[in-house]
Amino acid sequence: MTRTTCAPHHEDGTTPPAARYDAVVEAAVQQGLLGESDPVAGFIDTEGVRASVGNLHDAFAATPRVLHTFAAKACSLIPVLRLLADCGMGCEVASPGELRLALEAGFPASRIVLDSPAKTREEIRLALALGVAVNADSLDELRRIDALRNPSTASVLGLRVNPQVGGGSIGPMSTATDTSKFGVALRDPGAREAIVEAFRERPWLTRLHAHVGSQGCPLELIAAGVARSHELAEEINATLGVRQVTSLDIGGGLPVNFADETVHPTYADYVAALTAAAPGLFSGRYALVTEFGRSLLAKNGFIGARVEYTKDAGGRRIALTHAGAQTATRTVLMPDAWPLRIGAFGPDGAPKDGPLLAQDIAGPCCFAGDVVAYGSQLPELAEDDVVVLYDTGAYYFSTPWAYNSLPRPAVYGFRVAGPTGAVTFATVREPQSLDSIAAESGLAHVDALMERDR
Ligand SMILES: Cc1ncc(COP(=O)(O)O)c(C=O)c1O
Question: 288 and 412, same structural domain?
Fold first, then answer.
């Protein structure tokens, strides 16, 4: 695969203004990617992704040895993963499916890290055979690795710790609470000693891993967790009298600003927070691994969806669109934690203007809470209009929910040519067909339950 330079732009910390995507929405409608038969689709800004990766690399440029991996869960689409591999990223995977996607995308095993909390023996065996790095989630998992490991494995092996520095504003995204399910709880009685012992018994165990949480965790909290992991590495090495811990996997979790177009905090802010909390981290004594997901993709993608109908109910205007819980699952289930900015466009894809009206933007799913935005102030929407859900490049259309047997929406990458402004699209994922839905729903076994005792 050829590597291309991912030169950053947007140095002022901003994503391209929504207006830049106006032409993309219009082109998508004009080119028939959004219409009656395909009423919802996801879109990815290819150059924007390259720019975000460039910003990440720039922020860590002074660090001698760092592997930036992309958390595959944030956008589990093979062409996107291949784009990221081409930008020089590695890949963090958390399931056999994600490992398969990473390999299909062309990541070499040496740039893949496996992190899941419930790895089976089969998964561990495969990772070790491939030479994929593995972060054990518990001391029990380390014992499994003892039994499965071939001394010649190329896999870097690590242990995930929970630094127990506390949670952020979204409980389910906070992985460093006292009772989190992830890693070895570092401050529990006896845990520190047990971890040091685990390293003493296993000279091949050379990495510590911590991921404090994702959206909602302030930089200072994430940095405090990384600092705890760095201190532990120093303690292990001092106690064992040998520099056995040689790398630190510091996880991902840089929060994304969903309120407007500004990118903040930036990767540079994050490096500054890490430097303040753990000055020794960038000394070069430890190789670093990062695992960012949302911060690389969220602002580089959006969902476009048609308005099928509008109605009034109890004094409230509601637009019934095709973007709901099947593609904006977290927003629908936890609307306060995951608010989205919405844009309004006409049937021809041109931006709408006119007086603003408070409108609920509802989806197609058959439950009352299937609303992606309440009381959005937008020009009045009408049948056949298009709404855009901004900042949805990570964990939205790439992570659909099969509720109501709604199809997985198509995903397109796009580029905007410089002076001409021409928009070109590339298919990343076809819209799911009804045949595919039927097949997934047991069509091949249609009579399986019809047997009776005669
Ligand atoms: C272990 C691990 N690493 C990295 C990430 C990516 O986090 P984010 O997308 O917030 O950067 C996650 C997210 O859940 C994770 O669990």
Answer: no
Pair 319, 280: CB distance under 8 Å: no
CA 184 to ligand 1 center in whole angstroms: 17
The number of domains in the chain is: 2
φ/ψ of 387, rounded to 5, equals: -110, 150
What residues are in contact with ligand 1 under a 6 Å CB criterion?
A: 71, 74, 92, 115, 211, 214, 251-254, 291-295
Cα 70 to middle of ligand 1, angstroms = 9
Q: What atom in ligand 1 is closest to the CA of residue 214? A: 10
Q: Work out which ligand 1 atom sits closest to the CA atom of 74.
A: 9
Pocket probe mutation, ligand 1, options 70, 137, 211, max atoms within 8 Å of Cβ: 211
In a domain, 452, yes or no: no
Distance 71 CA to ligand 1 centre (A): 6
Residues 281, 369 within the same domain: no
Strand-pair partners of 287: 247
Cα angle value 210/206/125 (rounded, 5°):
90
The reply to whether 401 and 262 lie within a common domain is no
Residue 2 lies in a domain: no
In which element (H, E) is residue 105 found?
A: helix 96-105
CATH code assigned at 391: 2.40.37.10
- Per-residue confidence in pLDDT tens, the chain, 454 aa: 333 334 344 444 444 445 779 999 999 999 999 999 999 999 999 999 999 999 999 999 999 899 999 999 999 999 999 999 999 999 999 999 999 999 999 999 999 999 999 999 999 999 999 999 999 999 999 999 999 999 999 999 999 999 999 899 899 999 999 999 999 999 999 999 999 999 999 999 999 999 999 999 999 999 999 999 999 999 999 999 999 999 999 999 999 999 999 999 999 999 999 999 999 999 999 999 999 999 999 999 999 999 999 999 999 999 999 999 999 999 999 999 999 999 999 999 999 999 999 999 999 999 999 999 999 999 999 999 999 999 999 999 999 999 999 999 999 999 998 778 899 999 999 999 999 999 999 999 999 999 877 6
Ligand 1 mean position, distance from CA 40 (Å): 27
Which atom, in ligand 1's list, is nearest to the CA of 135? 1
Residue 428 Cα to ligand 1 middle (Å): 23
Of 392, 390, 426, 433, nearest to 409 (Cα)? 433
Measured distance CA(160)–CA(293) in Å, rounded? 18
Closest CA to 346 of 379, 389, 309: 379
The answer to whether 301 touches 42, Cβ cutoff 8 Å, is: yes
Q: What residue has token string 């845990």?
A: 191
Residue 40 lies in a domain: no
Q: Say if residue 282 is in the same domain as residue 383.
A: no
Residue 285 and residue 317 in one domain: no
Domain that holds residue 323: 299-440
Q: Measuring from atom 5 of ligand 1, which residue has the nearest CA? A: 252
